[in-house]
């Protein structure tokens, strides 16, 4: 049942996108990185990447 695996993968990708959107909003509000890690459940390295991407825009 490969479609179940694909569905689970799709759900995880959607959750990851939601976490990144949360982190981006928090970064734009100048929230501390420690809070962003806590609430987004993203690793610090990913948050720093998102922060760098925002700075380049």
Key terms for this structure?
0% strand, mainly alpha, 3 helices, elongated
How is the main sheet built?
none
Query: Which secondary-structure class do the elements indicate?
Result: mainly alpha
* H/I helix tally: 3
Distance between the termini: 43 Å
Tell me the overall shape: elongated
pLDDT average, as an integer? Answer: 94
**Helix percentage range:** over 70%
**How many beta-strand elements?**
0
CA radius of gyration is: 14 Å
Q: What is the H/E string? A: HHH
Determine the strand fraction and express it as a percent band: under 5%
Residue runs with pLDDT of under 50 for 5 or more positions: none
Q: Brief overview, please?
A:
With 57 residues, the chain is mainly alpha-helical.
Task: Draw up the topology in text.
Elements: H1 2-28, H2 33-40, H3 44-56
Helix pairs in contact: 1-2, 1-3
Describe the structure.
With 57 residues, this protein is mainly alpha-helical. 84% of the residues lie in helices and 0% in strands. Helix 1 packs antiparallel against helix 2 and helix 1 packs across helix 3. The longest helix has 27 residues. The model has no long low-confidence stretch (mean pLDDT 94).
């Amino acid at each position: 049942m490969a479609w179940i695996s694909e569905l689970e993968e799709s759900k995880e990708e959607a959750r990851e996108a939601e976490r990144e959107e949360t982190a981006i909003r928090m970064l734009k509000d100048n929230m501390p990185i420690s809070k962003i890690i806590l609430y987004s459940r993203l690793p610090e390295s990913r948050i720093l990447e998102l922060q760098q991407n925002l700075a380049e825009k």
